[in-house]
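Can't attach files on this board, so I'm pasting raw text. These are the components:
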Amino acid sequence: MGPPPPTVALPGTAQLPLAVALPGTAQLLPLAVAVPLLGAVLLVVAGRWLPRPARDALTMVCAAAELACLALLWARTDDGRAVSWMGGWGPPGGSPAHGSQSVGIVLVADRLGIGMALLVTVLTVAVLAYSWRYFDEPVGEHGGVFPALLLLFAAGMCGFALTGDLFDAFVFFELMGAVAYALTGYRIEDPRPLHGALAFGIVNSLAAYGSLLGIGLLYARTGQLGLAQLGQALDTRPPDLLVVCGFVLVLAGPLVKAAAAPFHFWLPDAHAVAPSPVCMLLSGVMVELGVYGTARIYWVAFAGPGGVPAHAFRDTVLVLGAVTALTGAVMCWQQRHLKRMLAFSTIGHIGLFLVGVALLTPEGLVGTAVYVAGHAGVKAALFGLCGLLLDQYGSVDEHGLHGRARELALPGALFAVGGLALAGLPPFGTGLGKSLAEEAGGRYLPGLLPALFVVVSAVTGGAVLRAWLRVFRGAGPTPGDRPGEPETSGEGEEPEVHSPSRRLPAPLTAVPAALLLGALVIGAAPSVGRQLAQAARLFTDRVGYLAAAYQGPVPPAPQPVPASDWTVSGALLGLLSAALAVALALLAVHFVHRGPGAALNRRLVLPLRRLHSGLVGDYVTWLAVGLAALLVAFVAQR
Amino acid sequence: MSVFPYLVAGWVLLAGIYGLATSRDLIQSVGCLAVAQSSTYVLLLAVGYRRGATAPVFADLPVGAPVVDPVVQALALTDVVVGATVTALLLALVIQLRKRHGTVDPERLTGLRG
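---
Top answer:
Structure tokens for the assembled complex are below.
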């Protein structure tokens, strides 16, 4: 008789007898970043010899291992945090004396961070399934490059979500950035993807260097690079101007990644031209990581007495979010290029997420978390359906495709459902998140913030429904061209596969359907919301984070767990915005450009559209102007 | 430590941004991005500098000898690697653009606007 197999206790489950002991929590954290990194290397090295099915299987195994790793972490952390000091270089004896330097690098994961990483991995799996037969992948030397890039992208994003170190955040930020530029310009035969990737790369990298300058300034002031150490060091000093400058510079990277106006210009250019599976990841989760980074950096490092006052952050980011949301909604409505329309709708929703975070309450945060999760499913599904149109017709132009997709019944139905879900129809996750964030916002600015949420989600959802009516139903007259107006048509897009008339591959419909189902579950299953509410409370508990990072005893979180259930008013507002979206879409299709609307359009909207010039130089100018404005705003409210 | 190197870092950053904003050549744009990045090198080195100190290589140093901050040097090294990767990638994109589109002038790329 051998010894009995070891048992591992998982919270919330029965004791599982396991033949092999699972790695401890401290080992799981770095594994979550290392598994996709190793997988990417393996794929690049072995990809040139392996046949395609073996490559696909290897990629899927890596993604599944990553998913298992993160799911185990989620189960183990429960209402706590997992902390791992790399190589055992932790602070000696737990909490270090004030002012002492710790050179160790730390990963700190709470459920919101793990949740973001899980979202990354789930979307990566969806994208891998979606692109199973989507590309005619190059063989030989370059075999396996596309899945390897996807895994590398996932590694960068997971690392960014799990790190507790400011400089590491910069490195992961640049890793996911560089991979994203390469993925955006993946189809190097066309000029437009290259153009989009260049705008994306130059603007994002410049912002990342701004972040690095900020990190350098903060290091000069405090001698710390870890978020928790930085927060602790700032707590012991009086607030000063250099710290505020450092804060604004550090935020440059996350805010540009999050595409907050006026840093958003790169996003529509990149998303319009990137391959559709890549757009699913870019819009679904990478952009949201910018919002996550902003929230994490402020909360841990700067929310103390030596940082940036709460009212300054709240008011500034609230204005930033509102401007972003309105810009995104207005521009979304103007687009005829479907992917560009979805890109602007992402900007609109990012604005709403920023508003939710800016409230600095657990209630606002749980609303944003649910909203992000639901939005990821819906937006990825819609991008997937655009990829399907591109696959079948070689175009994503709302006008050019007028009535041509009538034959696609199921994709059409999914597209319509996606549009309604984007508008916040209950019981989708987007609807629940919107209702929770609305309520939290209504407590701060009654009337105004809920109205912003309703209008922005109705307009963005309405634009998608308008496209559905035209493309899948053939409703209304074919809209004429608008000569003299700057616009991007969706005609002449290279189909991403080279035989457009072949049979419709199953994953192109199945994956969007599964993603929409996921968004439905997030809103309809109360346990998801409850767990995210607990996570949001933990996220806002700064004292606990600092203690946990030093592996000291963590005091219990002071605030109660925020509510995360549907309310009658929230559901009604969700129904209202969905109804508004339908009404807007019907109006637009049947009564195009008549009456006073056209004059208003010329006066107000056309100048805004002219700003989106496609010139990198203009985008850089806006970046500099926006940063200067943020700096003035924060210094003035100091 | 004088304030001069910090001013230099700021000036280099502004020069890079000015170049990026006004450039009519994408190769030059990528170069300007590298210039803007150089400001981070200057800043990091200025942060770690100590007067009269030497390089933090302890092989042939007496114990307790003053050395400059090794952490910022590690940061600068990482920064160089990141910068080289990004610059190489962007230059490759520009070269490909020149091959396919026959231009490196951003004003002549009019496919994406509005």
